[in-house]
Amino acid sequence: MPVQTDILIIGGGLAGLTAALHLQQSGMEVILIEKDTYPHHKVCGEYISNEVLPYLKWLDADPSVLHPSIISNMQFTTISGKVISTRLPMGGFGVSRYQLDQFLCQKFLAKGGRVIHDTVSSVAFEKDNFLIFTQSEHQYTARQVIGAYGKRSAIDLKLKRKFIQKHSPFLAVKAHYTGEFEDGLVALHNFRGGYCGASKIEDQKINICYLANYETFKTHKNIAAYQENVLYQNKHLKSLFEKSEPLFDTPITISQLSFGAREAVIDHILMIGDTAALIHPLCGNGMAMAIHSARICAELLLLFFKGEIPDRTAMEKRYLISWNHHFKSRLWMGRALSALFEKEYLTEKLLGGMVRLPFLLPLIIKKTHGHSLTVTE
């Protein structure tokens, strides 16, 4: 017999865990299926805007217990050596996914949630319920399924999502380091074919994560050769790597990153976090967006199950409206900025304009960030 639950969440990353914690503490029965055991590293910039702090505290998941770095300033550099700096309008903090995901998982378990380490192979919607099958040949039924499995998955092929059919030229590389890096700073360094973000996380570690065009990357025999021949053309990146010692045996990577449009609802599954949309890393706000999307989803589902939203169609429509209201313009800005920064000439022109008009950079940052997620009981 299938195991029954109110809500089944596919994927235990930041969005999935946040939604699970919110729903479980609000009285729902939640099962979360995650293929990997905790803790584990993920390719991620590991900077979070302070916009989500009130919400995390409301969830009894205040990240301050993890001793994150406090980040208040941003720096942007180009290959030619131009530098522009500004204070972040809201500020943020740096914490590794290795620590944060484990922390949220333990909070969820402490509230009675269930985490199952398995891989979902298929989801079917029949008679207003979901039937879920896993690779371990287990079956579950749920009143609602949430997709939070990340940037891409075999499930996307089963659901026939359009973005998964298209080739994407982007590859991301991430590792932790020890070395010299300014406190309170998140830095974004442009190079030919991509850009690299760096900031401190807990324990004075430095997270360095970059996005590269695979066509330029594959012409080099390995990551080290690519970094030395391409990233080092930006003198700031060269200095950063030369003054740092890696803490990973090898960097971790993810390929086929797609920043195109995705469906936030498909076959009645509500998508959250990167599963719903992937914002360009140069915006530095993917983690906050994942947490915010989890909150939107959880709040609407609670209204639906209480009968305050009359039916599933109305609930899904409200989710799409809310998603577009909060994220559509931010995603557009991310794509626009990425298109500019992929062209060295345009990057230099844009940076030159921001040097002459310093108010432009904080304005751009505000366009990719949201408002503080205050919570009322």
Automatic annotation (TrEMBL):
<dbReference type="InterPro" id="IPR002938">
    <property type="entry name" value="FAD-bd"/>
</dbReference>
<feature type="domain" description="FAD-binding">
    <location>
        <begin position="5"/>
        <end position="308"/>
    </location>
</feature>
<dbReference type="Pfam" id="PF01494">
    <property type="entry name" value="FAD_binding_3"/>
</dbReference>
<dbReference type="InterPro" id="IPR036188">
    <property type="entry name" value="FAD/NAD-bd_sf"/>
</dbReference>
<protein>
    <submittedName>
        <fullName>Flavin-dependent dehydrogenase</fullName>
    </submittedName>
</protein>
<dbReference type="GO" id="GO:0071949">
    <property type="term" value="F:FAD binding"/>
</dbReference>
<dbReference type="InterPro" id="IPR050407">
    <property type="entry name" value="Geranylgeranyl_reductase"/>
</dbReference>
